[in-house]
Design a protein that fits this description.
Length: 237
C-alpha cells in the first residue's frame, strides 16, 4: 500500500486484504471515497468520518455493492479524500456490514451462484447527450457527463456519479461563492488545474452543467476553448 501525493492511498488487494482496506479507512475516521477496480469493473465506497454511507458496483448500490466488491478475488484501489456524496444507502456499522456480506457470499458459493454481478455494458455512444459526445471528441478529455440537479443524465455508471459529486462540489463550494465575491454573478465556467492528477472543467447553464475531466498536464485553457468551440457547432441539416 503506497501513499499518494494528493489523492490518498492506493495499491493492489486480494479478496482477504480488501476487508483490511475497508477496516483501515474506518479506523482512521476517513472521509471520502475508495474506488476499486477488477478486470474492467469499477466500484466505489463512500465514507464519512469512518462510517460507510454509500457504495456502487456494477449497477447495484448499498449492501449489494459491498457484497459484489468482496466477491472479487483481486483488484486495485485508490482512496480520494474529502470526496462527498449525497446518497445514503448504508446505515450499518462496518463490522456488521462485512459479516452480513461475507455470510451471503459464502451461502451463494455453496449454492453455486456468482458472488458478484457481471460488469454493466457501456452505454452506446448514440445514447449519450450530444454535449458529452462533443466534449469527448476534444483531445485531452477523459470523461464527461451532463449533470442536472446533482445527478448525471443518461449515465448510471459509478464514474458519472463520482463526476457529479465533483461537479456539485466545484459549483457550490467554489464557483458560486467566488462569483458573488467578485460581483460577477453565477460563474459560467470553473476549473481545477493540476499537472499531477486529473483536472476538472465545469460549464454551467441554467438548465444543467457539463462536467469534463482532463488528463493530467493537458493544457486546460486550450482544452476549455476547444470544448467551447465543439459545443457551438450546430448539427448539419
Amino acid at each position: 500500500m503506497a501513499a499518494g501525493k494528493v489523492q490518498g492511498f492506493e495499491g493492489s488487494v486480494s479478496a482477504q486484504s480488501l476487508v483490511d482496506v475497508l477496516q483501515f479507512q474506518s479506523a482512521s475516521r476517513f472521509s471520502g471515497s475508495v474506488v476499486f477496480h477488477h478486470e474492467g469493473r469499477e466500484a466505489s465506497v463512500h465514507f464519512v468520518q469512518g462510517d460507510v454511507v454509500h457504495a456502487e458496483a456494477g449497477g447495484v448500490r448499498g449492501e449489494a455493492a459491498i457484497q459484489a466488491i468482496l466477491g472479487w478475488p483481486t483488484g486495485s484501489f485508490r482512496a480520494h479524500a474529502n470526496v462527498a456524496t449525497f446518497a445514503r444507502t448504508i446505515d450499518k456499522r462496518l463490522d456488521h456490514l462485512l459479516l452480513d456480506c461475507l455470510r451471503r457470499i459464502d451461502e451463494a458459493r455453496r449454492d453455486g451462484v456468482a458472488a458478484s454481478p457481471p460488469p454493466p455494458a457501456a452505454a452506446p455512444a448514440r445514447h449519450r447527450p450530444s454535449a458529452v459526445q462533443k466534449a469527448l471528441g476534444v483531445a485531452g478529455t477523459t470523461a464527461a457527463a451532463v449533470i442536472k440537479k446533482g445527478a448525471p443524465l443518461h449515465d448510471p455508471s459509478p464514474e458519472a456519479a463520482a463526476l457529479a459529486v465533483r461537479c456539485v462540489q466545484l459549483g457550490e463550494r467554489l464557483a458560486a461563492p467566488l462569483g458573488r465575491l467578485l460581483g460577477l454573478g453565477e460563474l459560467q465556467i470553473a476549473a481545477i488545474s493540476s499537472e499531477a492528477s486529473e483536472q476538472l472543467l465545469l460549464f454551467r447553464t441554467q438548465e444543467a452543467d457539463l462536467a469534463v475531466t482532463v488528463a493530467p498536464g493537458a493544457p486546460l485553457v486550450e482544452t476549455e476553448a476547444a470544448i467551447r468551440r465543439a459545443l457551438s457547432v450546430q448539427p448539419a441539416r
